[in-house]
Design a protein that fits this description.
Blueprint lengths: L17 H12 L1 H19 L7 H15 L3 E2 L5 E7 H7 L7 H11 L6 E4 L10 H10 L4 E5 L11 H14 L4 E5 L3 E2 L5 E3 L11 H5 L17 E2 L12 E4 L9 H8 L6 E7 L5 E2 L17 E2 H14 L8 H18 L6 H24 L9 H21 L1 H12 L5 H9 L9 E12 L2 H5 L4 H21 L3 E6 L2 E6 L8 H22 L10 E15 L6 E5 L1 H16 L3 E4 H4 L7 E8 L7 E6 L5 H16 L2 H14 L4 H11 L7 E2 L2
Parallel strand pairs: 1-8, 2-9, 2-10, 3-4, 3-10, 4-5, 16-18, 19-21
Antiparallel strand pairs: 6-7, 11-12, 13-15, 13-16, 14-15, 16-17, 18-20, 19-20
């Protein structure tokens, strides 16, 4: 016989279901470790939810928010609804007045702007200290026909901006100019403790309406909106041809003496627009915004924003009704739990490394992209703890992963003690991963059973020394055991010189039948090689006989808690044993039942007729591997046996006569013909 092709490498063992891994982890950790793990998971959830409230994490959350707000900020053309008219450093140089700002200049500008058809005027200049020209400005403010709003701040809500005497003067000034058209407005900003404006401010009861709310109607549902400010970016900033979002015109241009024609020319810049008047002075009234964190695309600097422009962005947001939707608190808690659960479950993933890496990278991409996506969809992410999610995920991963590792040694010890050395390497690896597959109770499985026996070994053991017997037996069993394990089989037991093995448990494969048949042939060949290798110095050894059958058996650990053995019990095991014994009567080395032959995947099998095995009532059709015969020879023998079974006497006689001539020296074939001659159609030959 020729040696079979080595079995193909086995596929990676099936992954352990995630639910089973979680249940096993919870039951095997023990109360103290389980409590510690739950405590760390609770801590992870708190971090994942409260990232904006935790030191250090808060700074990271703000940086991530600023990145989102900048990256997802709308790029727009110049907003024609709003115009800024400003005192700049050149204006201060020309007037020679720096603080308080030149009020004569403002009065002249207001006189002209009032006749140009503006929708409303907002003045972000604090009149908190006297100037000689106050009377001129006050007269103009009382004469305004355009709705005009004057900046008001108070010490209670803005102590760093104004002191008591200034507030008193401001109140007096505004009281003197208040009319149906001229009224105060709050210019209060909300600045985070890192000095950045991100959100709309509160509206304290004692303050007049916020400038954006005062200038334009606001829907009642958002009259007290406290969410994020939507900052805008110029549409062509990236191309280096930036047109500012809001036009910024020096106030000097409107303070000139104007006749009707000149005023009409300037009216195109004002008519129908909201006019914001304030300062655009270096190092004065400048604020950091989320846009300040990253260099400007044109200037390359981290640009600050004047307060007047912040008001403009807020007004544009209100006009567009572009309110950000808040994330409900319960939703943030749910997301925190899901994030920590994702980290915990990732530590238990039992897949190939590339799939684990893909799952990890996918989650990291989600943590990065999802907040940006929400920001772009109009969700207020100033409360979304993106950094907290990442840390919470890591804590969850570490907590559960550590817990899993604490029981890893216990699992390995269990698997090692239960497996011994009777399982193939890939099966043992799977059992190490999932010890539950090594059933601690009996279960019915369809298995391929192999029995072997070394002819004449008992007689040999009486003819040589015990040391020689031990050496020969160990060498023989090592060779055959390696074949079983190399072909993915499970060694059931050793009975003297006999080996009992099976395929299909504790783990079954689609090609178990092919593996078992290949192993059966290889064990026979190894026995023949052993006879040659050990011929010197010992009496002659007989052949190794092998039987293979497939059928149901009860497989599991038997023997009690103190001493157990993983074995198989059932009729299929007995049938395989009888097939091994039948080799002696049939003059064969390997006998395979028809049921096993159907899944053997071999083309060198020759039918050896139907026999009734010793001690069995049910006949068995048997086959033997004959790679030494040609395919044509095997086909003729198969046709002869088929003709006998079909009752085609003439065809059978022709085939049997030819076989007796061709195989006169082949004891197995000659005995096959003899048995067929002694039985009728469909009958089996009873082996004694």
């Amino acid at each position: 016989m020729t040696a079979p092709d080595p079995a193909a490498p086995a596929d990676r063992p099936a992954a352990v279901p995630l639910g089973k891994r979680i249940r096993r982890l919870a039951t095997q950790l023990g109360p103290s470790r389980l409590a510690a793990t739950i405590l760390f998971l609770c801590l992870a959830v708190l971090i994942a939810r409260l990232g904006w409230q935790l030191p250090l994490a808060r700074d990271a959350e703000r940086a991530l928010y600023d990145a989102r707000a900048t990256a997802m900020a709308p790029h727009v053309g110049q907003d024609k609804r709003i115009v800024m008219i400003t005192y700049n450093d050149e204006t201060l140089f020309n007037t020679g007045i720096r603080s308080p700002l030149d009020r004569t200049l403002l009065a002249r500008a207001l006189a002209n702007i009032d006749q140009m058809g503006a929708k409303a005027i907002g003045i972000d200049i604090g009149f908190d200290s006297p100037r000689p020209d106050d009377a001129l400005l006050q007269a103009q403010l009382r004469a305004m026909r355009t709705p005009t709003w004057l900046a008001y701040v108070e010490q209670a809500s803005n102590p760093d901006t104004i002191f008591y005497e200034q507030q008193k003067f401001l109140q007096s000034f505004i009281a003197d100019v208040t009319t149906a058209k001229t009224r105060p407005t709050s210019v209060l900003f909300h600045t985070d403790d890192d000095g950045v404006i991100r959100n709309w401010p509160a509206r304290p009861a004692g303050l007049p309406p916020l400038m954006a709310n005062a200038l334009a109607p606001v829907d009642p549902a958002h009259a007290d909106y406290r969410g994020a400010i939507r900052f805008l970016l110029p549409a062509r900033a990236d191309a280096g041809q930036e047109e500012p979002v809001f036009a910024n015109i020096p106030i000097d241009a409107f303070a000139l003496p104007m006749d009707a024609d000149m005023r009409a020319g300037f009216a195109d810049l004002i008519k129908g627009r909201y006019v914001l008047i304030g300062g655009d002075i270096i190092d004065v009234d400048r604020f950091n915004t989320p846009l300040s964190r990253f260099p400007d695309a044109v200037t390359g600097r981290n640009e600050t924003m004047i307060g007047l422009e912040v008001h403009a962005h807020m007004l544009a947001q209100q006009l567009d009704r572009a309110w950000f939707d808040p994330i409900p608190g319960p939703a943030l808690w749910v997301l925190a739990v899901l994030v920590v659960a994702a980290g915990s479950l990732t530590s238990l993933i039992d897949l190939r490394a590339r799939w684990v890496a893909l799952a990890f990278l996918g989650q990291m991409a989600f943590f990065v992209a999802f907040p940006f996506w929400m920001q772009g969809r109009g969700v207020d992410t100033t409360t979304l703890p993106a950094f907290g999610w990442a840390v919470g995920w890591l804590f969850g991963y570490a907590a559960v992963g550590t817990a899993a590792r604490t029981i890893g040694s216990r699992q390995r010890a269990f698997a090692q003690s239960a497996l011994g050395k009777y399982l193939p390497a890939d099966v043992a690896a799977q059992i190490m991963r999932d010890p539950d597959q090594l059933s601690l109770h009996g279960e019915r499985r369809n298995i391929y059973c192999v029995f072997t026996d070394l002819e004449g070994f008992t007689k040999l053991s009486h003819a040589v020394t015990p040391e020689t017997v031990a050496r020969l037996l160990n060498e023989y069993l090592d060779r055959l055991s390696d074949i079983v394990l190399d072909h993915g089989g499970t060694i059931d037991k050793f009975v003297g010189d006999a080996i009992v093995a099976f395929w299909g448990a504790p783990i079954s494969r689609p090609d178990d039948g092919e593996r078992a048949a290949a192993a059966a042939v290889a064990m026979y060949q190894a026995g023949e090689a052993f006879r040659v290798d050990m011929a010197e110095g010992v009496p002659p050894l007989g052949m190794t006989r092998v039987g293979l059958h497939v059928g149901d058996a009860i497989v599991g650990n038997f023997g009690g808690e103190g001493r157990i053995q993983y074995t198989a019990l059932g009729d299929s095991m007995n049938t395989a044993s009888r097939l091994e014994s039948a080799n002696k009567s049939l003059n064969t080395g390997v006998l395979i039942s028809a049921e096993a032959a159907e899944h053997a995947g071999r083309d060198d099998l020759v039918p050896m007729g139907r026999v009734t095995l010793r001690g069995r009532a049910r006949p068995v059709d048997v086959f033997t591997p004959r790679p030494d015969l040609t395919g044509e020879q095997r086909a003729r023998i198969a046709a002869m046996v088929a003709a006998h079974e079909a009752g085609e006497k003439s065809a059978y006689v022709t085939g049997a006569t030819a076989a007796q001539t061709e195989y006169a020296q082949d004891a197995a074939i000659m005995f096959l013909v003899k048995r067929l001659n002694e039985t009728e159609r469909g009958e089996s030959y009873v082996l004694s």
